[in-house]
Specification:
mainly beta, globular, four-stranded antiparallel β-sheet
Length: about 325
Amino acid sequence: RRWNPGGWRGKGRGERRREGPGASSAGELLEMGGETLFFDYKCQFNRQENDEIVLCCDWCPREFKKPLLVVGSSDGTLNLFHDEGERHETEIKRKDARGEPHPPTCCAWGPAPHYLLATGWHDGAVSLWNVAMEEKSKLLKEEKTVHSTSICLVKWSPNGDRLVTADQDGFVGVWKPDERGRLVSICKHRKGRNAVTHVAFRTQDTRSPAGLGGAEAPNFYFAGEDGIVYLAGDDPSRCKEVLKMEGPDGVPSGTAVLMYHAEKDTLIGINDHLIMTRAQGPDDAGHTNVLATAKLSARAEDRMLALWAAPGLLVTSSSERLGRFWN
């Protein structure tokens, strides 16, 4: 489930309209309750059978006449839809030498100025597409030099100058698009053999330039099934462990949520045992300060989701019929 970049379209019962993806404050967020009507539209797939599974989706941040959604499914296709379910004629399909489909596992649309669509595939390939509305979409590059197993995530830095990819074997790739938008591999990291499932860019690093190692792009945290959080960047030698999110009695616990609070330069993590940790760092000396921990009230087997509802206001949700707001 993803918001489109322009928020929602149309006006609610109270004639209020938000032009952004989130409220500007907690007060405004709470005032929206009961004032907006939502309508669901079914995406019209061009297929004969209905047994394909939707694996990933993302909204394009570019301003077209209508919002644009990409949807990847298990039949190896990427389809484009407008916000009312209307299917665009563009379809991206990828097959192997035997004609068997390769399912996409994750996708992420990059920011301006290129608005490139990055896609990770089941066979470890990472592809970059230039999706144009007035002409045929073009494959800029496809890479299989970094990953050989299924891609778990693809994530762009906020300004689009880095792309981070990760796979099931614990490899993390750092890429940079060149002037033509083609991917160039910068480096790769590996700190374990477990799948890496979460990445969060540290956009407001409080350390001195010397502590950053002269990095051009913001460093990023990554974590996965072992619950260990690392801080990495363009230099593999500077990748280091900064936090270990453990369960009761110190047992390993996988990562369920990994978020970055830019205003406070703090990291928020929730593990599979539903223990939330708020930490800051590392500083110039390499120390990470754990600010607070809390046990969430939910069942441990439930899937935990989280997003920023407003600056500094985090909302978490599991299978409970409620959302929990955290300041």
